[in-house]
Structure prediction request, 214 residues.
Amino acid sequence: MDKMIERTMQSLERNGMKPFYCESKEEVPALVQSLMAKGESVSHGGSVTLAECGIYDLLQSGDYEYIDRSKYAPENMREAYLKALCCDTYLTSSNAVTERGELYNVDGNSNRVACIVYGPKQVIMIVGKNKLVPDINAAIRRVKEKAAPPNCVRLGIPSACSKLGKCVSLTKEDPFMCDGCAADTRICCNYVVSAKQRHKDRIKVIIVNEDLGY
Prediction:
């Protein structure tokens, strides 16, 4: 196992989060399935990583009460978000994970970070090795360079970073965590650092030895 992955897993354990390791994305569905009970309610945030690992196919298998927000009309989306907040298992990725065992996530609508922080009985995060960083400063930069710009392009959001390929704040000598554009379509609105957890092992982090997602 890569030394950085090993150190990160040890730090997550110290912070009350349960780490798991998969050598490849093909191993992920079976591990996720072992962490969920048949019949329980499940939902997820928008995630390229989940799609790459085949998690949506698992959730659509009929074994779970799947809260699929793609089935909700835009005017009923709040209902889907509230159901997800009370589900048994919430699946997502993380924008970055530090070697100190911290999760760093940035959201626009913020239903995803809300579920990470509180609500679902358990949160299962699937994280490619490309999202591991030394510290929070590196996590901030990663979102501004590697996560937000391609996600805006993928979602068709006309933000400054989708055109520049990086956050406008990086033109400054010392950009702050929450610096960004002033566009109404900005996707970086709420910034959440998950460190030491009171509810031990509620958050489970699967680290995959591949580059996944943004």
Remarks:
- The chain has a mean pLDDT of 96.
- The first helix runs from residue 3 to 14.
